[in-house]
Amino acid sequence: MSAELPRTFKVVTVWLLVGLALFLGVQWWLHRAAQARFTAGADVIEIRRGPDGHYHWPGRINDQDVEFLVDTGATGTAIPTQLARELGLESLGQVSSSTAGGVVTGDVVRADIALRGGVTAQRLRVIALPGLADRPLLGMDVLGRLHWQQRDGVLRIDLRSIRS
């Protein structure tokens, strides 16, 4: 009497292993693609447009890792209300803000922003907005201090000319 496994079990095992290998390969590729979208040198930062059509700039708000969505159409930087709560940011008052979804009321808070590549903004006035997607928006209050250009799906920031 042989102790061979049933043929169906062998086929299922092979397909599960193929599926696992494919899954791990895709995860590795996505990780490499995300790393290739952001490069920082001594004088220049380059951010390649993501698959969603937006530029994503990794950074920190009060020592918590976040990924900012670069929004050249936004006057100021905004974060989700929930994130402001998690960070313990105290409201300095309320303000109405025009968004793509209409006018909303948010809280004014102060936060320290540190963007990968060495760009920082201390005690920046930030608006905490309800209903904002899970990603903070980096607005012109920070971007306006930088010399940048956008071409062929690449946002290029020249660090030699940071304005105070």
Question: Could you explain the architecture of this structure?
Answer:
- The protein has 164 residues and is α+β, with helices and mostly antiparallel strands.
- The chain folds into two domains: 1-36; 39-161, Beta Barrel (Cathepsin D, subunit A, domain 1).
- The strands form two sheets. Strands 3, 4, 5, 6, 7, 8 and 9 form a seven-stranded mixed β-sheet that branches. It has a four-stranded antiparallel β-sheet with strand order 1-2-11-10.
- β6 and β7 (102-115) form a beta hairpin.
- It is built from three helices and eleven strands; from the N terminus they run αβββββαββββαββ.
- The termini are far apart.
- The model has no long low-confidence stretch (mean pLDDT 88).
- 25% of the residues lie in helices and 41% in strands.
Brief descriptors of the model:
single chain; 164 residues; alpha+beta; Cathepsin D, subunit A, domain 1; 2 domains; 7-stranded mixed beta sheet; 4-stranded antiparallel beta sheet; elongated
